[in-house]
Write a structure and sequence with these properties.
Helix content: 40-55%
Strand order of the largest sheet: 2-1-3-4-5
Strand content: 5-15%
Largest sheet: 5 strands, mixed
Number of strands: 5
Shape: globular
C-alpha cells in the first residue's frame, strides 16, 4: 500500500476520495464535484471495465499518501452486465452504477424518470430541456447550474429506483459521502 498520511497534533485527517471511472463524462462530473465541494478527490479516468480489479487499484495507490479514512469509488455505467458482476466482486470499494448511463443521473435533476430509458433518450431529453447539444465529457454551464441547484431532488428520486434495473443510479451515495466530508470539514473550523 502507499505511504500513510499522519495528522499533525490537533489536526484531523480528512478522507481522500479515489474515484476510478471509465468514461469522459464521469471524469468531467467528478472534476466538477471536486471544484464544488473543495475536497481531496483524485480521479483515475478511462479504465475500461475489464481492466479494473483490486490489484490495479492497489498498484495505482502505491507510493501515494493514503489514510485508513480514504474511500475508493468505482463509477460506471451499467451497459455491460458481465463487467458489473466483476466490479461487484472487488472488495472494499463503493460501487456507483447508473443504468443505462450517467446521463440518467443528470436527467433526474430535471424530472422523475421511473420508466425504462435508453442512454440516447436520456441525452435527447437533456438536450430538449437545455435547448443545446449535449456533448459527452463536457458539463456545460447550464447543466452545472442545474446539478448544483437540484441535487437534493435528484438524490430523492434516485433513492426510489431499484439499483441495477433500468432506470437506476446510486450516485446519491457518492453525493452523500461528499456532503458528509464537507460537513466534517466545516465543523473543524
Amino acid at each position: 500500500m502507499g505511504n500513510k498520511r499522519n495528522a499533525s497534533r490537533g489536526k484531523k485527517i480528512n478522507p481522500h476520495f479515489w474515484v476510478f471511472c471509465e468514461g469522459k463524462t464521469e471524469e468531467a462530473y467528478v472534476i466538477f464535484l471536486r471544484s464544488l465541494y473543495r475536497l481531496p478527490i483524485e480521479v483515475v479516468p478511462k479504465i475500461s471495465g475489464s481492466d479494473i480489479n483490486i490489484r490495479y487499484i492497489e498498484s495505482y495507490k502505491r507510493n501515494k499518501p493514503t489514510h485508513e479514512k480514504d474511500r475508493d469509488f468505482l463509477i460506471y455505467d451499467a451497459d455491460i452486465l458481465h463487467i458489473i458482476e466483476k466490479l461487484r466482486n472487488i472488495p472494499n470499494v463503493n460501487l456507483i452504477i447508473s443504468n443505462p448511463a450517467i446521463e440518467l443521473w443528470f436527467l433526474l435533476h430535471y424530472k422523475n424518470q421511473i420508466t425504462s430509458i435508453s442512454a440516447a433518450e436520456c441525452v435527447r431529453q437533456l438536450e430538449n430541456r437545455n435547448k443545446n447539444t449535449y456533448k459527452k465529457g463536457l458539463i456545460d454551464e447550464q447543466l452545472k447550474t442545474r446539478l448544483k441547484e437540484k441535487y437534493k431532488e435528484a438524490c430523492n428520486r434516485a433513492r426510489q429506483l431499484r439499483l441495477f434495473e433500468n432506470p437506476s443510479t446510486n450516485m446519491f451515495l457518492f453525493i452523500e459521502a461528499l456532503e458528509s466530508a464537507k460537513q466534517e470539514k466545516l465543523a473543524e473550523k
